[in-house]
Write a structure and sequence with these properties.
Layout lengths: L5 E4 L6 E7 L4 E6 L4 E5 L6 E5 L4 E6 L5 E5 L3 E4 L7 E3 L10 E7 L5 E6 L8 E6 L5 E8 L2 E6 L5 E6 L4 E7 L6 E9 L6 E7 L5 E6 L3 E5 L5 E6 L5 E7 L5 E6 L6 H6 L6 E5 L13
Antiparallel strand pairs: 1-24, 2-3, 3-4, 4-5, 6-7, 7-8, 8-9, 10-11, 11-12, 12-13, 14-15, 15-16, 16-17, 18-19, 19-20, 20-21, 22-23, 23-24
């Protein structure tokens, strides 16, 4: 069973997302999408460094030779360091419709998968894209409302993905040779009103942990879709759970305060903070982008 939930950083992020543990630096990186922030936290000292970018970063991954690949508002970009210049990669999303990139993850071969959001949450215009190490961008599918939950199983053969407003978590077969995602099927569907699946991660046993936005908790699922554990978070809007720490057994949870009422913020003043709890099984380590 998981340990108690602790507040790691009371940063009051509007839309905290994408916690990523850098094993070499022993540091936690994460973003505040609404403020265009990329953060680096040293959990030992509590020191926080922040890079403010010119547009939102929905997600990112570390690169194999240092730096980051970013899924920004309307396309992908590279950073050689936290303070380095942004180098955009093409192509870009069409301007003017309010869409932006959101959650993303890298596969064991170093390809970066990131999805978009439909700003209306009605038109089903969101999709999932793959950025290959050579810079080629492929749209894998569209028809979603909000692309979320991207994660690869320990053996890299299963890709998890959720369409958050539809309350559905899916599983795909991941083709390691081609980067294709095949055989989409429903992994679990949540009822309306109890929280909806946002960002998630696998542990090394193949269980999938997902943050339930507007559900105030993190759920752990088996391969058959059964919930075997739920961990309450002291705020209603957890956005993602990912693993790190020296032994990979610390679950970090980002949260949001954007959209909460004054009464809700008074009830849940730590909303927007970064939380952590201990787990029995290490998580899957982050794969670096190979480009």
């Amino acid at each position: 069973m998981s340990g108690p939930v602790e507040l790691v950083l009371d940063c009051k992020a509007l839309l905290g997302e994408c916690p990523r543990w850098h094993s070499v630096e022993s540091a936690l990186y994460f973003v505040d999408i609404a403020r265009c922030h990329l953060h680096r936290l040293d959990p030992t000292t509590g020191r926080l460094r922040t890079r403010t970018l010119d547009e939102p970063v929905g997600s990112f991954a570390f690169r194999k030779d240092g730096g980051f690949v970013l899924a920004m508002r309307d396309g992908f970009a590279l950073l050689d360091s936290l303070d380095g210049p942004v180098r955009h990669l093409g192509p870009r999303l069409p301007p003017g419709n309010g869409a932006r990139f959101n959650d993303g993850r890298t596969d064991p071969s170093g390809r970066f998968y990131a999805g978009t959001i439909d700003p209306t949450r009605e038109a089903s215009t969101a999709g999932l894209f793959r950025l290959d190490p050579d810079g080629a961008v492929t749209c894998l599918f569209s028809g979603a409302l909000t692309s979320n939950g991207a994660a690869f199983s320990p053996d890299g053969k299963i890709f998890a993905w959720s369409d958050t407003p539809r309350h559905v978590l899916y599983a795909f077969d991941a083709n390691a040779d081609t980067g294709a995602l095949e055989n989409r099927r429903v992994w679990r569907r949540w009822p309306q009103g109890g929280g909806r699946p946002d960002g998630g991660s696998f542990d090394q046993t193949g269980r999938y942990w997902t943050a339930l936005f507007d559900g105030g908790r993190v759920a752990c699922l088996t391969a058959s879709g059964d919930i075997v554990e739920e961990v309450r978070v002291p705020c209603p809007r957890p956005t993602m759970v990912a693993f790190g720490g020296a032994d990979g057994r610390t679950a970090f949870v980002t949260t949001a305060r954007e959209g909460l009422t004054e009464a809700q913020l008074a009830q849940w003043p730590q909303s927007g903070g970064v939380f952590a709890f201990r787990v029995d099984t290490p998580g899957v380590s982050e794969h670096p982008f190979a480009g």
